[in-house]
Amino acid sequence: MGFYTLNEAAAILKINKQTLRRWDSQKKLKAKRHPFNNYRIYPQKDVEELVKKNFFCKETEPNYVLPQKRYNSIELFAGAGGLALGLHQAGIDCVLLNEIDVDAANTLRKNMPNWNIINGDIRNLSCQKYEQKIDIVTGGFPCQAFSYAGKKLGFNDTRGTLFYEFARIVNEVKPKIFMAENVRGLLNHDKGRTLSTIIKVLEEVGYKVYKPQVLKAILFSVPQKRERLIIIGVRNDIQIQYHYPNPKNRLYTLKDALKKGDLYDTDVPYSIGVKYPITKEKILDLIPPGGYWRNLPVALQKKYMMKSFYLSGGKTGIARRISWDEPSLTLTCSPCQKQTERCHPDETRPFTVREYARIQTFPDNWLFSGTITSQYQQIGNAVPVNLAKEIGFSIVNFLNSVYEKEFVLANNTNTHFFQKKSNYATIV
Which of 240, 276, 286, 412 has its CA 20 to 30 A from that of 1? Predict the structure, then answer.
């Protein structure tokens, strides 16, 4: 049986942690205690039963919306296409993608031969010809530290970092809205100063930056406990509010990812995958589904963990076997390194490439180029497609409002024209 942490259960039920603690004392939702750190944990079946009954959490409005017109985007640091594909499924046309990695660029070309893919260093990319012709600029720039010594930390002070290149393209193109994504750790990187500088620079180039939000993938039809920090900015001359996507009540597990069901209409197809070394395989043979290194005999715990055995923290990702009835832990670029083991529930092996892709909600016909190591890395670095699609719907909803306002002003008409849903786009 799987468990949710206090933070995860609160997010799923759309309540704050204080309320959840109160429910525990009132026995409305009884917590158990983690056997090793004594933290509150909540049986997955109890949390999900409340979600199914809609007893404590209200059903949110669906994010799905059709575009009123053709909207387009430029994507930077495109990777293997998780973000671009999700936006495409939401009805947004990508007119240019930039990616420096050859294998990732070839993955994009293999799957979307009609996309304009530029494989090269973003520092050599100019987008001036697209000025005010693009609705959205997106990208997941790598997080780099800035030097604070004697600097005001404006636009030019970030020169030499990849974030500067993202801000430069936004400044060149001047899209109506931009969306940047990064790891949750950016919130506290360098005591929060890195994120503060990023926001300041994006404001400096002419954007209202909304409070960054950490979106939990499990709340957006992704069978994985992955989190992404989303930063949204709207051009200063546009007086329309953006709203982050609404979370969903339906939760998906590893079984939903790999077996026939609501997410996929077939079991996961066979594909290549790496293997554990014999010594690690013998260790993981002893781990039950949902378990990790603490399920080993104490002597083996000490031998496997070495000095880490005596350190604080659960380190629950080490020697971890995922169970069928829980979402996967966050996938990383390697499925078998000691800190990031993600073992199959029934077989003592890492997830295959295709299993990795399904956990990230890529369709089965999305193929990956390069060596097996490169394929794992591309998938592990990707934004889950379903999460990207829900963000895409929220951006389309914003752009529809912008278009409606522009249309009304240009044609001296009223908003009744837009009360019927547009059937402009066919979502694929």
Answer: 276
The reply to whether 279 and 400 lie within a common domain is no
Which is catalytic among the residues 94, 127, 143, 343? Answer: 143
Tokens of 218: 């499990």
Does residue 143 have an active-site annotation? yes
CB 141 within 8 A of CB 178: no
CA distance 254 to 266: 14
Q: Which residue has the higher pLDDT, 307 or 346?
A: 346
Which residues does residue 117 pair with via DSSP β-bridges, in sequence order? 97
Parallel, antiparallel or unpaired: strands 71-76 and 136-139: parallel
Does the pLDDT of residue 143 top 80, yes or no? no
Measured CA distances, 217 to 16, 158, 291, 386 (Å): 18, 30, 22, 8
What three-state secondary structure class fits 139?
strand
Q: Is 423 part of a structural domain of the chain?
A: no
Structural domain of 287: 254-381
Does one domain contain both 95 and 227?
A: yes
Q: What are phi and psi of 150, to 5 degrees?
A: 65, 25
**Same domain, yes or no: 321 and 245:** no
In a domain, 63, yes or no: no
CATH number of residue 15's parent domain: 1.10.1660.10
**Exposure class string for 134-164: b at 16+ Cβ within 10 A, else e:** bbbbbbbbebeebeeeeeebeeebbeebbbb
376 and 398 in a common domain: no
In one-letter notation, the amino acid at residue 388 is A
Helix, strand or coil, per DSSP, at residue 214:
strand
Q: In what order do the strands lie in the sheet with 3-5?
A: 3-5, 40-43, 32-33
Q: Are residues 43 and 86 in the same domain?
A: no
CB count within 10 Å of CB 260 equals 12
R_g (Cα) of the chain, nearest Å: 23
Q: How confident is the model at residue 116 (pLDDT cuts 50, 70, 90)?
A: very high
pLDDT at 427: 38
Output helix, strand, coil percentages for the chain, rounded to the nearest 5.
40, 15, 45
> For tokens 């016909």, what's the residue?
365
* pTM for this predicted structure: 0.86
Question: Do residue 145 and residue 289 come from a single domain?
Answer: no
Q: Tell me the residue length of the chain.
A: 428
Based on the domain organization, do 326 and 370 belong to the same domain?
Answer: yes
Nearest CA among 4, 372, 405 for reference residue 219: 4
356/249 Cα distance (integer angstroms)? 24
- Count structural domains, the chain: 3
Residues 37 and 111 in one domain: no
